[in-house]
Structure prediction request, 730 residues.
Amino acid sequence: MRRAGTFLLLTVIVLLLLPLLSLGWTTLSRLRPPQPRLLVLDDGRRILAAELDRDLEDRREGTRRVLQADGSVGFLGSATVSAMTVPEAWFVRRDDGPPVMGRLVGLATGAGDTLRGEAAETALREMPERIREDKTRMAREVRSAAPGAAFGRAMRQWELLRVADDRALAFLEDLDGVRRPVRLSAIRESWKASSSALGPWLAAPIRAWTLFLEDPDPWSGGGLFPVVSATLATVFLSGLLGGIPAILAALRISERTSPGRGARWIRRGSAWFAAVPGVVWGTIGAGVLVGGAGDRLDRLFGDHAWRNGGVLWGAVTLGALSAPTTLSAALRAIDRTPRLAREIARSCGATRWQVLRLVVLPQASRGLAGAWVSGLARAAGETAPLLMVGAARSVGGMSTESVHWFPRLSGGFLHLGVLACDPPWPALEAELGHPLAFLSLSLLAALCVALELVATRLLRQGPRRSA
Amino acid sequence: MIPPAIHPGEPGEAVHVEFRGWTVRHRARDLLRWIDLSLPRGRIVALVGPAGSGKSVLLSSINRMLDDLPDVETEGTVLLGGDPLWGRGVDDLSLKRRTGTVFRHAAVLPGSVHRNVAFPLLLDGWRPGARLDEAVEASLRSVGAWERLRDLLHRPASELRAGMRQLVNLARALTGSPEIVLLDEPCADLDPRETEIVERAILAISGSTTVVLSTHNLAQASRLPHRVAFLLDGKLVEYGPTDRVFQRPIRASTEDYLSGRFG
Prediction:
């Protein structure tokens, strides 16, 4: 009997952990940079290619698709005789077309110099980001320049930069000797094929860090940091807008030694409303906030920011959604503080405020913090309502300011869950094993699990026995 | 049918608390019915009776803890030192500070022994300091607990044994020099040894302070108070000096209860 119980327990633990472990493993394997390989086919052809994910149709028909050196997708009808790594081959991911592969035969800088060998490789690693930074800075200068001479000067510099940008090219050569120019400013990621099997695994963490910190971009979907910051901001703001009022309401309801009828109804209602699915709150948010309040605000201020949703509407929706959870947990936390202590304080002539400040809060503070974090965990785990109140699926449709480190309250926003369930990058990128969907899912799962662990720990500790 | 209450007062005794036609109703149920009772100043009065007889409600009428119970209606008058306790315009917080209360379960306030004893003064805005420490010491000395607790003053009160916690509660009830101390079954959770310690403390404070004690413990009711009031179903059945009530009860129901035939 005991053995069966242990087996059942282990099965449950494995079933609970398996999805998380599987997600972690998939994320790590997807973070391995795709490797250009030399495939020798049984018809004698030799091609430089990277394997694409096999979908259901591929599996059924027994076909294999590969990304070829020029960025096109090829179907392999014939069998592969051998596959080997080509150490000198580069894989270049860019935002103005599909990824390309080939040997780096030269690199032209914007100033007209041509680099070869190691100098070209170093420049290929370093220059794209520098050029992008220059372009961003110059674009900002043009936007902020006053009309007149200053604007003219800025535009002339912009034109010079654009010309230099057009000249800054890397040249990749495939196995047939065909050279392809790649604009440096369009390169998002590039790496040289690794000669060892361990190399791509070792590169995975560095790649994750790079994808996390790079500028947001609609093509490759990089720049996870603004997505994380917007997610955290939305969740935290929801805690302020929904969690804090819920805790204040719990304190108000519990301050009476014997609650009245209204308080009893709210107490029961908090448990019922905590069970309402997020999509219902999303619909309410879309109708009341985006369609109602947003429309009015836009008419008032004469713009289109609030009608498109934003962090504020997302936070209000998540706040409303998580408030019953917080309220319910806060009431339980307060109930765990000895009621008699409150009666003692009242009998000493303490006002209700003094009872709250001197008796209830010192004992219930941990539980109330746990209730607040538990509301945050509920909010962090919701994605569907955010899709309805303006979460953007890609940075492409958003204003530049909205995707930076500190998200704006209006005008669309990014979210880890939305990025994972509706990725903005092309299907080809996904087939190459784009890691961001899995990376964002892993981060979201880690955030939710961490918040839930903190909440459980705080709620479990019970009333504080302070000296 | 319970006959009218008998409550003879001793000639020449100063009345401290007086109930006149005091009735308490909660959601159409009478918790107390037409109580006429005078409690003498500086004496210990025990309220005895089975569960639900109205002992705690009577105590709650003096410290106005009844206010916290919703849907309660009252009739009649309760006077403390001649001042009405209930009615429009009565400041219930200042009245509460004229009373000290100890509850049945030996629960304490969060915080140290010192904070527990000093609590009524902290509510009055006293700051930590020598004056507050002196007041805490005086309260603990008045219940004979200073020697036992002087080294534990800054330990959490919740870590003390039940008997010690009740002494802390008694000391807290005496802090601020209340006129009257209300004890709602203070020894219910204590063992005989702890009960003895608490009873000694109660005897020590009587004389200067009026003590109203609600108890189920008939042995305690026979040895501790000067007066005993027997309540049954919200009515005052009999009231008088302890010896007389225990040895020559006038009402048959009093005799039945005290001799253990019911309750």
Notes: Residues 98 and 179 of chain B are 6 Å apart (CA to CA). Residues 1-8 of chain B have pLDDT under 50 and may be disordered.
